[in-house]
C-alpha cells in the first residue's frame, strides 16, 4: 500500500515546536519554528562573533549585515539561550538600526527568553512591549497572546514580571487591529483578575474595537465604565461611536453623536469628520458628505489625505469621476499629497470603466511622485484587465508586482482565476497551485470560479471533484456553487441529476434561490417537460421564493417550443399579475415563435407592444425579424431593419450578418454576400465559424437544387444546414477562392479567418487540407493561437496520428501555450494502446513541467483516461512518477487513485 504522506499536501497550519532547553523553567516550554527557516550556518557564525570582545568591530560582521534577517536573529537567540543577556540586548539594538532590518515577533520572543531567564526584567519590559506592537498578522498576534498567557501562569514571573496596564493596553490595541474581539474580552477579564486597573485608554480601545464591527450596543457598555470611573468620554470615544454607527449603516445616529460633541466639551477632529463623511458616502449621500467636507475649516479642522481619499472614492462610486479628479487635483494644490490609497481609488475607478490606458498614466504619475503602489493598486489593474479578457496584460501586472517585491494576496489570485476561467481553465487551475504554494487559503469564491470554469468547458466531472475538494478543505458550498452545477447539468440534458442535486439542498440547510429554481425550470422546459417546470414554479411560490422575469421567460419559451403560444401569452399575463414586468427578452421569445409560424402581423403587433411598454428592441429582437425575412427571401425588409438598427444605435452581431450572407448566397448573389461580409469587417464584428461555413457552402455549390429556391420558407420548411457536410467536402482550392473574394471586397483574410477555417476542418478530420492551410497561415506571417493548436492536436489524436500530435504539443509548449488535458489524455492513452510506452511516458513527464494543476492532471489523464481504459498498471507507474517529481495531490484525489488502482 502506498504512503499517502509522500504526495498529499496536508495543508497543515503553522505550529509550535520546542527548539531548546531552558535554564529558567518558568518561561514557556515552546518557541515557534520560524516561518522562513534561515541559513543554519549564519546563526552559528554570529554566535561565534558575539562571543568575542568588541564584537561590533569584528571584520566579518559588516560583510554579514546584508544577509542577516529576523529569522537569523531568531535562530541565534533560540539556539544559544546562554548568550550573555547584555550582549543579546546590544546586538538586538545594533542590528535594528541597520537599513531594511525589522525585528519580528519571533526574534523578539527569543530575546525575551534570554532576558527573562537572566532576570533582566527592566529591559525585558521594553522588549515585551516591542513584541506586543510588532505582529503583522492574526497568527503572529495569537502567538504573542499565547506566549504572554504562558508567562503569566508562572508564580515567580507573575510577581516579578507582571503585565502592566501599558502592556495590556498595547496588547488590546494589537488584538483590535485584527478584530480579534473574543480575545480582547478575554484579555480584559484577565486584566481585572490580575488587579490591573483599566484606564480611559483601555476602555477607548475596547469601544473602538466594537465600533469597527458596528456593535455600538456593546461599545456603550464600556462608555458607561468610563463614566462610572468618574471620567468623561473624550474626542476618541465619540469619534469611535461615529464610526460604529456608520458601520451599522445608521448615519443619522452618527450625525447626532457628531452634533453633541461640542456640548460635551469635546472638540471634533479630522478623524471625526472623516468617519462621518465616509459613512455618508457609503450610504450614497455624497452631496451631504461634500457639504460637511466644506464646513471643516469653520471647525478649525483641515482635510487629511484620508478625508480627501474617502470623498474622492464616494464620488467615483456614484459615477462622478470628473468631480473626484477635480478634488484630487485640489488636494495636491493645497499641499496634501495623495497617498497610495488615493491613487488606487482613481486607478480602480478608471479600470472599472475599461479606461486602463488612463489608469496606467495615473500609475506613472504615482511612481514619479515616489508613491509605491500597494497590492490593492495592482489588484485594481489585474481586475480591470481580467474583466475585459486581457489576460496577458494581467500577467504583466503580476510580474510587475513580483519584481517590485509586492506580494500578491488571495484577491490577486481570485481575480486571475476568475479571468482565466473565461478562456483557459487549465491556467486558472494552475493558479490554485500557486495560491497553495504561497500559503494563501483558497476561499468559496476561488472554488466557485473554478467550478464555473470547468462547467463552461463542459468538464462536469472535474467540477464535481472540485466541489468535493472544497468540502474536504472545510469550506461550505453556497447557493452560487449549486446554481452553477444545476444549470450546467441542465444545459447537457442531465435534468434528473440536476433535480437530485436540487432536492439535496434542504439536507444541506441551503434554501434554493430564484437562480437555482430558474435553472431547473429552464432545464425541464428544454427537454420538453413543461408540466414538471410548472410544478417547480408552484413549489417556488410555496417556498416564498419569488420568480423573476428570467423564470417566467424560461416557461414562456418552453410553452412556445411545445407550440402552445396561447398558453405562453397567458403566462405573460400571469407574470404581470405577479408584479413582474415583461422584459425585451420576454417579447423577443414570443416574436421569434410567431415568426417561425409565419405570423408576421402578430409579430409586428407584439413589437409595437414591446415599444409601448417602455422597452427597447435589442439586437436579438431585430435579428429574429431579419432571420424570418431572409428565410422567405424578403431581403429588402431585412436590409431596412439593418438601417433601423443603425439609426437606433443597435449593433448587429455575428448571427445578424451571417443570416444576410446566407440569404444572398441562396439567391446566388455572392457579390452582395461579400458586401455584407465587408460591412461586418468594417463594424469590427468577427465572422463566426458559421459565417465562413455558409460562404464556403455557396462558393462550393455550382448548381442549385429545388430545395434551395428562395421562394421556399426556409425558416419553417428547410432542413437546418449540416455544417459538418460543408467542411467534409471543402477543398483547399475553395479556401483560396474564398481568400481572393475577400480580398476583392476589401476584407482581407486574417488570424480569425484562418482560426475558424482550421477549427471547422479539424472537427471533421480533414487533416490534409488543414495542413496546407496551416502552412499557408504561417507563410503569411500569422501565428496560430491556442484554439488552432488545440483543434489540430485533437484532430491528430482522433485520427491516430500520434507522432504528429507530439509535434503539435512541442510547438505549443515552445510558444508558451497549454494543450487541453483532454487532448493529452487522448495522446497518452493512444500511445499506450499502440504499445509506445516510452513515448507515452515522455509525453506525460514533459507535461508535468508545464505548470498544470497536479490534481487536474490526475483527474483527466490517470482517472478519466488510464483507469477508465483498465490500464491500472500504467496509472500506478505515472502516479509514481508524479510522486518522484514532487507533485502535490489533494487527499481526495489520492484516495480516488488508490481505490481505482486497487479496484481494477
* SSE-based structural type: mainly alpha
List low-confidence stretches: 1-38, 703-719
Question: Terminal Cα separation, in Å?
Answer: 15 Å
For the CA atoms, what is the radius of gyration?
35 Å
> How would you state the average pLDDT, rounded?
90
Overall description:
The two termini are 15 Å apart. The chain has a two-stranded antiparallel ribbon with strand order 1-2. The chain contains 50 helices and 2 strands. The chain is 68% helix and 0% strand. Residues 1-38 and 703-719 have low confidence and may be disordered. Helix 13 (235-247) runs parallel beside helix 15 (270-282), helix 37 (654-666) packs antiparallel against helix 38 (670-682) and helix 46 (821-833) runs antiparallel to helix 47. By secondary structure, it is mostly helical. It is globular and about 100 Å long.
Write the layout of secondary structure elements.
Blueprint: E1 16-17, E2 31-32, H1 41-50, H2 59-64, H3 70-79, H4 85-96, H5 105-117, H6 121-133, H7 138-153, H8 155-160, H9 165-177, H10 181-193, H11 200-212, H12 216-228, H13 235-247, H14 251-260, H15 270-282, H16 286-294, H17 305-317, H18 321-333, H19 340-352, H20 356-368, H21 375-387, H22 391-403, H23 410-421, H24 425-437, H25 444-456, H26 460-472, H27 479-491, H28 495-503, H29 514-526, H30 530-542, H31 549-561, H32 565-577, H33 584-596, H34 600-612, H35 619-631, H36 635-647, H37 654-666, H38 670-682, H39 689-700, H40 723-729, H41 732-744, H42 751-763, H43 767-779, H44 786-798, H45 802-814, H46 821-833, H47 837-847, H48 854-867, H49 872-884, H50 891-903
Antiparallel strand pairs: 1-2
Helix pairs in contact: 1-3, 3-5, 5-6, 6-9, 9-10, 9-11, 11-12, 11-13, 12-13, 13-14, 13-15, 14-15, 15-16, 15-17, 16-17, 17-18, 17-19, 19-20, 19-21, 21-22, 21-23, 22-23, 23-24, 23-25, 24-25, 25-26, 25-27, 26-27, 27-28, 27-29, 28-29, 29-30, 29-31, 30-31, 31-32, 31-33, 32-33, 33-34, 33-35, 35-36, ...
Amino acid at each position: 500500500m502506498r504512503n499517502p504522506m509522500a504526495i498529499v499536501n496536508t495543508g497543515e497550519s503553522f505550529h509550535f515546536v520546542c527548539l531548546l532547553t531552558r535554564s529558567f523553567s518558568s518561561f514557556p516550554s515552546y518557541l515557534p519554528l520560524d516561518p522562513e527557516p534561515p541559513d543554519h550556518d549564519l546563526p552559528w557564525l554570529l554566535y561565534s562573533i558575539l562571543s568575542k570582545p568588541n564584537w561590533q568591530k569584528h571584520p566579518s560582521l559588516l560583510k554579514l549585515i546584508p544577509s542577516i534577517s529576523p529569522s537569523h536573529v531568531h535562530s541565534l537567540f533560540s539556539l544559544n539561550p546562554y548568550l550573555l543577556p547584555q550582549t543579546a540586548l546590544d546586538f538586538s539594538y545594533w542590528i535594528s538600526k541597520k537599513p531594511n532590518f525589522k525585528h519580528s515577533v519571533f526574534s523578539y520572543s527569543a530575546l525575551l527568553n534570554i532576558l527573562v531567564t537572566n532576570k533582566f526584567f527592566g529591559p525585558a519590559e521594553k522588549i515585551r512591549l516591542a513584541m506586543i506592537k510588532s505582529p503583522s498578522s492574526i497568527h503572529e498576534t495569537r502567538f504573542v497572546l499565547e506566549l504572554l498567557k504562558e508567562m503569566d501562569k508562572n508564580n515567580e514571573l507573575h510577581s516579578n514580571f507582571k503585565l502592566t496596564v501599558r502592556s495590556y493596553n498595547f496588547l488590546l490595541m494589537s488584538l483590535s487591529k485584527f478584530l480579534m474581539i473574543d480575545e480582547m474580552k478575554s484579555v480584559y477579564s484577565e486584566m481585572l483578575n490580575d488587579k490591573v486597573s483599566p484606564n480611559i485608554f483601555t476602555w477607548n480601545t475596547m469601544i473602538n474595537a466594537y465600533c469597527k464591527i458596528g456593535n455600538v450596543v456593546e461599545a456603550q457598555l464600556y462608555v458607561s465604565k468610563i463614566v462610572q470611573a468618574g471620567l468623561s468620554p473624550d474626542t476618541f470615544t465619540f469619534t469611535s461611536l461615529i464610526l460604529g454607527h456608520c458601520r451599522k449603516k445608521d448615519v443619522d445616529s452618527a450625525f447626532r453623536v457628531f452634533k453633541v460633541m461640542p456640548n460635551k466639551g469635546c472638540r471634533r477632529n479630522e478623524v471625526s469628520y472623516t468617519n462621518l463623511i465616509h459613512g455618508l458616502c457609503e450610504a450614497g449621500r455624497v452631496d451631504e458628505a461634500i457639504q460637511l467636507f466644506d464646513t471643516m475649516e469653520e471647525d478649525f479642522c483641515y482635510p487629511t489625505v484620508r478625508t480627501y481619499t474617502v470623498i474622492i472614492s464616494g464620488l467615483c462610486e456614484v459615477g462622478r469621476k470628473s468631480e473626484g479628479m477635480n478634488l484630487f487635483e485640489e488636494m495636491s494644490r493645497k499641499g496634501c499629497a495623495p497617498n497610495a490609497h488615493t491613487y488606487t481609488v482613481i486607478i480602480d475607478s478608471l479600470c472599472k470603466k475599461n479606461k486602463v490606458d488612463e489608469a496606467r498614466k495615473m500609475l506613472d504619475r504615482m511612481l514619479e511622485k515616489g508613491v509605491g503602489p500597494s497590492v490593492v493598486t495592482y489588484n485594481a489593474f489585474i481586475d480591470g484587465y481580467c474583466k475585459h479578457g486581457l489576460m496577458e496584460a494581467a500577467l504583466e501586472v503580476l510580474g510587475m508586482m513580483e519584481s517590485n517585491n509586492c506580494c500578491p494576496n488571495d484577491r490577486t489570485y481570485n481575480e486571475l482565476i476568475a479571468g482565466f476561467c473565461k478562456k483557459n481553465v487549465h491556467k486558472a487551475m494552475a493558479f490554485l497551485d500557486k495560491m497553495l504554494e504561497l500559503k494563501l487559503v483558497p476561499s468559496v469564491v476561488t472554488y466557485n470560479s473554478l467550478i464555473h470554469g470547468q462547467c463552461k468547458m463542459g468538464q462536469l466531472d472535474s467540477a464535481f471533484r472540485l466541489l468535493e475538494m472544497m468540502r474536504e478543505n472545510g469550506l461550505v458550498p453556497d447557493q452560487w456553487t449549486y446554481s452553477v452545477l444545476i444549470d450546467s447539468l441542465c444545459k447537457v440534458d442531465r435534468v434528473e441529476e440536476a433535480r437530485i442535486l436540487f432536492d439535496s439542498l434542504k439536507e444541506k440547510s441551503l434554501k434554493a434561490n430564484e437562480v437555482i429554481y430558474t435553472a431547473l425550470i429552464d432545464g425541464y422546459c428544454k427537454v420538453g417537460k413543461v408540466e414538471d417546470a410548472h410544478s417547480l414554479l408552484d413549489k417556488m411560490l410555496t417556498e416564498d421564493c419569488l420568480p423573476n422575469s428570467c423564470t417566467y421567460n424560461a416557461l414562456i419559451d418552453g410553452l412556445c417550443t411545445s407550440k402552445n403560444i396561447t398558453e405562453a401569452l397567458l403566462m405573460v399575463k400571469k407574470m404581470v399579475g405577479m408584479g413582474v414586468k415583461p422584459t425585451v427578452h420576454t417579447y423577443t421569445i414570443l416574436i421569434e415563435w410567431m415568426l417561425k409560424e409565419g405570423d408576421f402581423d402578430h409579430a409586428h403587433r407584439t413589437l409595437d407592444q414591446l415599444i409601448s411598454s417602455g422597452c427597447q428592441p435589442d439586437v436579438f429582437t431585430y435579428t429574429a425579424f431579419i432571420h424570418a425575412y431572409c428565410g422567405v427571401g424578403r431581403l429588402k425588409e431585412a436590409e431596412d431593419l439593418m438601417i433601423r438598427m443603425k439609426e437606433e444605435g443597435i449593433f448587429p452581431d455575428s448571427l445578424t450578418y451571417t443570416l444576410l450572407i446566407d440569404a444572398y448566397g441562396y439567391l446566388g448573389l455572392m457579390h452582395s454576400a461579400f458586401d455584407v461580409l465587408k460591412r461586418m469587417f468594417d463594424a469590427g464584428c468577427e465572422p463566426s465559424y458559421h459565417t465562413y461555413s455558409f460562404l464556403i457552402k455557396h462558393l462550393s455549390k455550382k448548381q442549385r437544387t429545388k430545395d434551395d429556391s428562395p421562394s421556399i420558407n426556409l425558416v419553417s420548411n428547410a432542413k437546418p444546414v449540416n455544417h459538418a457536410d460543408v467542411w467534409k467536402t471543402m477543398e483547399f482550392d475553395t479556401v483560396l477562392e474564398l481568400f481572393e473574394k475577400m480580398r476583392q471586397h476589401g476584407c482581407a483574410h486574417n488570424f480569425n479567418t484562418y482560426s475558424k477555417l482550421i477549427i471547422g476542418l479539424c472537427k471533421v478530420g480533414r487533416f490534409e487540407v488543414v495542413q496546407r492551410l496551416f502552412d499557408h497561415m504561417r507563410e503569411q506571417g500569422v501565428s496560430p493561437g491556442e484554439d488552432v493548436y488545440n483543434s489540430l492536436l485533437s484532430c491528430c489524436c482522433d485520427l491516430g496520428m500520434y507522432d504528429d500530435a507530439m509535434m503539435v504539443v512541442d510547438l505549443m509548449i515552445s510558444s508558451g501555450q497549454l494543450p487541453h488535458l483532454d487532448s493529452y489524455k487522448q495522446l497518452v492513452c493512444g500511445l499506450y494502446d499502440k504499445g509506445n510506452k516510452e513515448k507515452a511516458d515522455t509525453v506525460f513527464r514533459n507535461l508535468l513541467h508545464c505548470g498544470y494543476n497536479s490534481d487536474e492532471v490526475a483527474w483527466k489523464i490517470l482517472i478519466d483516461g488510464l483507469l477508465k481504459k483498465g490500464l491500472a498498471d500504467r496509472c500506478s507507474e505515472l502516479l509514481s512518477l508524479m510522486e518522484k517529481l514532487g507533485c502535490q495531490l489533494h487527499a481526495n484525489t489520492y484516495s480516488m487513485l488508490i481505490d481505482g488502482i486497487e479496484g481494477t
